[in-house]
Amino acid sequence: LAQASKPPGPSSPNAAKRLYRNLSGKFRVNYTSFDESSLAGRGEKEKLRKSYLFQSNAALFEAVELQDLDRVQELLKQYSPEELDLNTPNSEGLLPLDIAIMTNNAPIARALLQAGAKESPHFMSLESRSLHLSTLVREAEQRVNELTAQVVNEAPNTDCSEKEKQLKAWEWRYRLYKRMKAGFEHARVPDAPTNVHLSVASSSSVQVTFWEPLSVNSAVVTKYKALRAIPPVVASPLPCLCSAASSSGELKNLHFTIHGLVSGTAYYVQVSAYNMKGWGPPQASVPPFAIPSNWREYDGRAPRRRGQAEALDHLLGQVKTVHQHCVCHEPCKNQPQSRKHSVSKSLKHLFHAGSKFLKTLKRGLYLTAIFYKDDNILVTHEDQIPVVEIDDTYSCLLMQDFLWFTKVSCMWDEILWLRQCVTVSQSSCSCILQTRFKMLLAISQMQGLLGIQDLGQVFFEPVKDKQGNILIVTLKEVKTNQTFESVRWVPICKLQTTRKSVSSPEEPTALDTLLISVQDKLAYHQRSSHALSSGLYLGYLKLCSAVDQIRVLVPEQLPNILCHVKIRSNPNISREEWEWLQKMASVEEPIPVEPEADTPRNHLFQELQVAIKELMTLVNIPLQEAKDFRLYSQEVLDFGGQVSFLLLLPPSDDVCTAPGQNNPYTPRSGFLTLPLQIFELGEKR
């Protein structure tokens, strides 16, 4: 019993040293053996991986040979082209694409082409391909004859059953090679592509779009080329194509751009298709030629926004330089260190006893921040969306202060500097300046409690209630897999069902209204970050004014852009097209003038007709009223070079609906009106 009660540790320091030394030696041996085994394990894993990839390559060849489209698509989705060795020939010198096109399996060939597959480089000519196929057929036939003789002459046994399996496999391969050879012999060069359209892409490029050849009897088309030519200096009925250059197009999009052209020079373009039998006849484009140009060349104007961002950054830097030695910064020089410390806390101290998040609202102006991830929202332990107070005695002009707040949201990182600059005249400042200083304080408080500087995007209007509460709402999506201590994500639907309302359904508080409509606000935030695809658009500009603001009509699905329809995929307006638009704008009385056929002007005229009809239907305006509408002819609105807009304007008296004035044509559901300043900020984002 006495021995059992002794502690299990060593009885002396020397014993402890011996125990440590022995254990250390054992651990050293174990570590060495572990390292060796791990290296050996890695080698085995690498061998298994290579074997697995080799099997996947063989599986792809088998799926193509069996014409199993689903299996081919599954393998292309599961593995990269490098892992599949997509462009490495097999032992017969064939690639998966070769087998697909010579068996004329167009769906599998398209899937392989989209994944980056190529034809075998061994087939340099029609003769080499024909000779290779004949050799494969002859060798397969010879192998079938040999195996047939062995099966017939040998007695039934295990080896004989194995030979029978080999015979069946070679018979199937013999039929495959014969089918491939027949497919090659019966194929012919492809017909010319259809609907070849040529347009001006920029001052130094043209864009070619086309459709596949209509014929279904020829082999699969694997690539295209465009022949471009400059008309000869001497007058001639046809342009010279002797110095044509070829450009490969993208099969999956059936369009490509020819770069490096000379502005102001006419270029004729023809497009040809290629299959395993060679190049087909060329098809001339419509219009027959294009002159690289841009609408700005009409009057030589520079882009409106050129250098604006740099100028604003330079101006802000100058302002900061002037304020560096301001007296208001003296007591705050050591604040960045403490600020950094508070940020490093992240959200783990969000809900300690000293937290200043509000649980209930009194009459006043408040700031709330909504952070969401998927269908979850960040809340306090009291299941409350984070709220801080701005001003409990607010009585100024809300819209003016709100619009100022939205501009501040573009400078979340500069709040401390802005607050320091405003404190200089705090004692003698006006009501407006006091309110804005309190806004900066509330922002700093929210940033400090959350440990995050970027509070996100401001929702386009405050949330109000009849008790006099006003909530300014910011929204931010958390996309990273971030974990926060002492904070929990709650499903939005659960928060809406479990939170107890403190107001009546007839007169909900601002917090209850926010919670009820939070999903709509999140949808607005997500939609406002969507971007348009590349192209030329027709936008509809409609404003309505109130006492303290001007609002602009936008679609709910894309609130950061005007109501619009797409005219075409090419965003560029050529000089010739712009000249025609200017001519139409200068005509006082509308007259039905159609441009000549097969010209860029005629194509733009037809595209505008279709777009205007579609846009009028979209905004619920009778088409007969569109005769009084005008195209904005001062400029083309350019957004980053990939998206451009032509504006359609109502009559001058109806561009902006005045307060109290009825709008005879109310858009259908799916639209909303944003304050003009909010719309401008959203467009810049």
Automatic annotation (TrEMBL):
Q: Which PROSITE patterns match?
A: FN3
List residues of the Fibronectin type-III domain.
192-294
Pfam families on file:
fn3
Source domain of life is Eukaryota
Instruction: Give a Gene Ontology cellular component term annotated to this protein.
Output: spindle
What SMART domains is this protein classified in?
Answer: FN3 (SM00060)
**GO terms for biological process, alphabetical:** establishment of mitotic spindle orientation; regulation of establishment of bipolar cell polarity
Segments spanning the bilayer are none
| Protein name per UniProt | Ankyrin repeat and fibronectin type-III domain-containing protein 1
Q: Which organism is it from?
A: Opisthocomus hoazin (Hoatzin)
